[in-house]
Amino acid sequence: MPNISAAILAGGLGTRLQTVVSDRPKPLAQVGDRPFVAYLLDQLCKVQISQAVLCTGYLGEMIESYLGKSYRNLHLAYSQEPVALGTAGALGLALPLLNTQQVIVLNGDSHCDADIGELISTHRQWKSSITMAVTFVADSSRYGTVILNNQAEITSFKEKGDQNGAGLINAGIYVIDHRVITGIPPGKKVSLEQDVFPQYVGHSLHGFLTEGCFIDIGIPMDYERAQIILPARAINSFEGKRTP
User: Fold this and answer.
1) Cα 71 from Cα 150, distance rounded (Å)
2) In which band, very low, low, confident or very high, does the pLDDT at 58 lie, cut at 50, 70 and 90?
């Protein structure tokens, strides 16, 4: 997959998960015998992406110390927040390391079996500014929902708790044009979900529907689910040290 770099948003505090994972950042939470972030890196390796930037914050030095400069065929770089900047602010801070026309961005605390290669190709075909992987879940109240029209354009977002039952949600994987990232105000706390994405509704913001399995490890119940689901779906065994 030429001419695209990747970023993993790995700077969150993981407050809701600290009752079961208190000694490390969420991306290093043990899932099976591997850190959670290894499953995300495997997805990037599968489509032969060669460079990934980890946008770190809380205990970011632990992530860098553990992963080092490479993972399989991936060259790894790090962008450490001096203060919490939010998901968009962290991405903006990493801009000097993201020098390709598009960037594939993954949330560091969720996993979706989306076809990343097809997501990137579709983004380019649509000439989108932002393409978001979206998926259906049985209970959308925890996430908020995404509304699509027949042209796969995202027309609106509904906040968490606005509705119960099945719905279409943000699956935590995006292709974002470089020019969008350059528009993020530097040094300020900015959210992709609350600040950036709503600005692009009606302006080349698309949803890529995937049926891939989705799991968010942000709460203990789903972290326990991940222990069963993700090791069974692993692309390859982790090549290197086990989770510290």
Assistant:
1) 39
2) very high
Q: How far apart are CA 10 and CA 87, in angstroms?
A: 9
Q: Note the maximum CA span of the chain.
A: 47
DSSP of 70-131:
EETTEEEEEEE-SS--HHHHHHHHTGGG--SSEEEEEETTEEE---HHHHHHHHHHHT-SEE
Instruction: Give the integer Cα–Cα distance in Å for 121 and 1.
Output: 9
C-beta atoms surrounding 163 within 10 Å = 13
Range of the domain at 36: 4-133+169-233
**What radius of gyration, in Å, describes the C-alpha atoms of the chain?**
17
Q: Residue 120's domain is classified under what CATH number?
A: 3.90.550.10
pLDDT in tens, 151-172: 999 999 987 766 678 899 999 9
